Amino acid sequence: MVKENATPLEKLFGSKTRTKLLALFFSNPDKSYYVREMTRVIDEQINSVRRELLNLDSIGIIKNETYDNKVYYSANMKHAYSRALMEMFSARVADGGKDRDVKSSSWDEYIKPVRNFLVGLIVTNRIPGEEGIDLLIVGDDKTKKLTHWAEVVEKKLGKPINYVILSADDYTYRKSVRDRFLTEVMQMDITEIYDPQKLIKED
Predict the structure, then answer these.
(1) Which residues, in sequence order, are bridge partners of residue 155?
(2) Distance CA 81, CA 22 (A)
(3) Confidence of residue 121 (pLDDT cuts 50, 70, 90)
(4) Which has the closest alpha carbon to 23: 134, 101, 79?
């Protein structure tokens, strides 16, 4: 039974977990996920995720393949409703009953909890399946505060993110020797830069 305070999409699809899974699959149609990865990203219990995967798989909305003894699930783009679902969920996440464009999310709000630990941040517009990273995080992660924060951001975005955390000293050294990794990051499509100490800006 759907709760009274459920979002419109949850009411439409009959389940919060099912809605989150559909959003994950059809906003990232080129990617596949294993069960524990999905539970972490959409922040739902593993039993609930498994139950909804069986439901979606049984009607052919998703498909599964096994690699290295792990079962990976992905959107079935050959399904009759795949295009409609992709248009509904592509680049959007359900948020309090409203659809919110991920690109318009305020990174100023995201970084507030870690402002004292964060020296710099680069956000890229990496296409799913493309090489590279989504976030380059520069700062003090001795207490794993930034690692935990990156996992929270991942849940807010509703999709897995590739991120790398560097200390300020490591970043400065890599920049001084024109490190290949940093060079490749700077050549990506960068959408946001948080750089209060003017560390990340190009010389």
Answers:
(1) none
(2) 12
(3) very high
(4) 101
